[in-house]
Amino acid sequence: MDTVAQFSVLASLPAADLDLAQGALLIALAGDPALVPGRWRAELDRWAEGVSGLDGLRRRLFSELGLSGDEANYYDPQNSFLHRVMERRKGIPITLSLVTMEVGWRAGVPLEAVGMPGHFLVRVPHTGIYLDAFAGGELLDEAGCERRFRMATGSTEADAPFGPHLLPTISPHGILARMLANLAVIYELRRSGPDLEWVARMRLALPGAAAPEVLALANALEMQGLFLDAARELEGRAEGLPSAAQELLAAAHGLRARFN
Asked: pTM here?
């Protein structure tokens, strides 16, 4: 079974049964076929050994292991690959948060993912305590979260009043979707059709995938000169998306016209 097929099986599971670390490692495996996922799962276990409580978790990850945000190379795809983040001890907010949660869960520290627009955080459930893994494990209250939000988005109170609606808990499927969306932006900028293709196929395997993800896959195939394959994907998926069928079929027609 290839990596995208493995990811599709995992993505079909209910949130309660989805192994987030494995999903992240499958994303990494698609980008780095030499990866051995079991090695890094064992490393997460090792990092959790002897950790007790939130303070112990922060000490282990950010003091002893030195995890930090990669500000110099923020848009390097390595920052979205779990094993590279663990190996380099650098990453972006979502992958550093994922490491924090996975190690914390293994150590019995309750944590949940917070998909704040513009920045990813970790929360201790029912406490109002937030952790910014990109900022070296700094603890925040809601006012601190707002400051991060304003810095990340450039918005003002008049533009976007801040509140709990901007601090939503995000599901494992949502975390994987956000990781893949980040990679899609990077590979689009790099005009890397093969990478965009596997990213798009993984995005399509997640719940809620719709016309934009189908069009992204067609774009990735078109970028590789695979016009007929792109048209077939659009046509084959149009029936399952009746509200967007006309748009998808029109795009397929345009691709077939280009091929002729």
From this structure: 0.94
